[in-house]
Structures are given as C-alpha cells and as structure tokens.
Design a protein that fits this description.
Length: 373
C-alpha cells in the first residue's frame, strides 16, 4: 500500500513540476500576493492631504502648521484664501481635511485665554475621518500643552482634567500591517491549496488519465492520499515561504512557538484539502473547478473576520461562519504571531478546526470514492 502511495506521490510531483504554470503558482504567486497585499491591505492613515486656512498669519499659527506636517500624518497641499475655497477643495475631494486657525490665535495664547482651532474632515470614508480627527486633536492639544494653554476643537467637548495614560499591548505601535499580514498569509495558503487540489484532480479527468488510474491496482483511499499528500507538502512549503517573507521583509513579530504553528497549519490544511477535493467531485472541467473555487473562496474571506468583525454581522450569518475554516485559523495564527499564545489558549479553536476538517475530508473522500466507482 505504502509503495503504491509513494509512486502516486512521485507521479503527482513530477506532473506538477513539469508544468511551468503550476511552478509559478507554487513558488512565485504566493510571494507576489504577500508583497502586494502586505503593502496594500492596511488601515494606517498617513500623509492626509490637508488644507490649512490660516486667518491669524502669526508665528504661532505657522508653527502649528509645521507641527502638523512634522507629525507625518498631514501634508498641507493647499492654503485657501477664503472659506468658500476650503469648501470647494473638500467637495472636489482634493483634500481630506481642512484646518482653520481663527484670528487672534496668537493673541489668545499669549494672554492665556483658551483658544480654538476648527478641524473639518471628509466623512465619506468614516475610518479615515475618525483617524484624521484623532491625529489632529493630539497634535493640536500637544502644541497647546507645550505652550501651557488650552486649545480645543470646535464642536468638541472640553476634556476633563484627567491624567490619561494609554498603552497598547501586543502591537505597541498600532501597526495595522502586524494584524493584517498574518491574515494575508492564511488567505494565500487557502487559495493556493484549493487551486492545486481542485484543478489537479479535474485535469486528470479532463485529459483522460483518471480512467487509466482507475484500472491500476490503486484502491480509492490510496488514490485520494496520493492526490492530497503532494499538495499538503507544497502548501506547507508555501506556508514557510510566505512566513519568512512576512517576518523578515515586513518585520512582523512571531512571538509564539513554531511547532504550534506547524501543527495548527496541518489541521487547517486538512479542511482546505477536503474542500478542494469536494470541488473536484462536482466539477467536470478545469474552468468549472476554477469558478467553484472562487465561489467558495470569496465568501470564506469576507466571512472570516479578516475584513469585517464577525461580532458586527447579523446573528444568522455569525452562525454560518462556524463552517468556515479560515475563521478559526485567523484567530490561531494572529495569536501565535502577535500574542505568543500557546496550546492552552488556542486549543478550543484548534479542536473546532480539527472537527470541521475531519467532517469535510471524510465527506469529500466518500464522494470522491463514489465518483470513482
């Protein structure tokens, strides 16, 4: 049995590495996807195009503008001469924020009188608007504190005199890339494994070699293992490859145990291989397999918690996410990378993922054997 499986595995590897396109999918595509998504998938807000409407035209107002630009969050691209020009810049989307310093700003600071600065943001993108207002508040409040005076924003409630000290655990610099890149790694592994498994089996049927395999001494279970083991090995290799890129290129910390990451990846791949095997049983051509793969892949990503918090979804959809292996693996991989979580914390997610994987791979294998019969 093991000799037949070994020969089947060797045959699969030979077939994969003879195809230039498959080699590109295995070695080049995961790295390219991680590099592109690693830079693109970020919620960090920097270099916000800003209009600075200075009615005071004093040293203090110019110093405030310099502080805003020096923070790295704001780039002053326009200095309007009138309020109507500021509105037009916001309407056209030329700037995302407008800061107005009223007349008497320097005088009020010198006299110790509380003064105000108006910040207007484009609320079309609520996330960017919220972050921009927070950044502006901190920079302006810091400048006022340095001058020993109170500076507040129009429309904001005057803060109480409380010594507020904040600290972010696990991601001290609040880099969104630290949160997103581990998720991107999980998504890339899912896509690669799904495509390899679904397309390879269907390709055998499409070119007529599946019938040749069926008349060989191979039993159905041996054929299934021979088909899935090579892609599991390739997926593990891709996992290590993109993890190295994430750690050394994007400087993502990995605080947990590597053996635990390997174990959880094996459990994760059990589910993904099962889904790929199931897709191969319902597809007659490679085009159908490709369409079915993306029919599963896109909802799996959207409902995994990678882009949108699961807690904010309707209750019915939340229950549906329990059937998504990516949901569990995202918690596991982020816990290992950022928090250094061990098995004692992650075992519930791993147990649920293992149960789901066993059900999926068993169902897919039974259907695959039925199709062979």
């Amino acid at each position: 049995m093991f000799e037949r499986i070994k020969e089947m595995v060797i045959k699969e590897f030979s077939q994969v590495f003879r195809d230039r396109r498959m080699k590109a999918i295995i070695f080049v595509t995961p790295i390219m996807q991680l590099l592109v998504f690693g830079y693109a998938v970020t919620t960090d807000v920097k270099n916000i195009a800003t209009a600075y409407y200075d009615l005071d035209r004093s040293f203090e107002s110019r110093e405030l503008a310099r502080r805003l630009e020096a923070s790295g969050y704001f780039t002053i691209t326009s200095t309007p001469a009138a309020a109507t020009e500021t509105r037009e810049l916001l309407d056209r989307g030329t700037v995302l924020a407008a800061i107005q310093v009223n007349r008497g700003f320097a005088r009020d600071l010198s006299r110790g009188i509380p003064t105000s600065v108006q910040v207007i943001v484009d609320g079309t993108d609520s996330n960017t608007a919220t972050v921009a207002m927070d950044y502006a508040s901190r920079v302006i409040a810091g400048y006022g504190k340095e001058r020993g005076k109170e500076v507040f924003l129009h429309g904001a409630v005057k803060p109480a005199r409380v010594d507020l000290r904040t600290r972010a655990w696990y991601n001290p610099d609040l880099r969104s890339r630290n949160y997103n890149v581990p998720g991107v790694i999980a998504i890339i592994i899912m896509l690669t494994c799904l495509l390899l498994t679904a397309m390879a089996v269907v390709r055998e049927r499409e070119i007529g070699t599946m019938e040749q395999l069926m008349v060989t001494p191979l039993r159905p279970v041996e054929l299934i293992l021979g088909k899935t083991i090579p892609f599991a090995i390739i997926s593990f290799f891709d996992m290590f490859l993109v993890t190295l890129v994430g750690v050394f290129w994007f400087d993502i910390p990995i605080k947990g145990a590597i053996p635990l990451l390997v174990l959880s990846t094996a459990i994760y791949l059990l589910s993904v291989l099962g889904v790929g095997l199931f897709i191969s049983t319902i597809s007659r051509t490679q085009q159908q397999a490709l369409m079915a793969t993306f029919l599963f892949y896109i909802p799996a990503v959207l409902l995994s918690g990678f882009m949108f918090p699961i807690e904010n979804m309707p209750t019915v959809i939340q229950y549906g996410t329990y059937l998504n292996p990516l949901r569990y693996f995202l918690v596991i991989i982020r816990g290992i990378f950022l928090k250094g979580n061990g098995f004692s914390i992650l075992w519930p997610q791993m147990a649920l993922l293992l149960a789901l994987g066993i059900v999926v791979i068993t169902t897919s294998s039974l259907r695959f054997r039925k199709r062979l019969g």
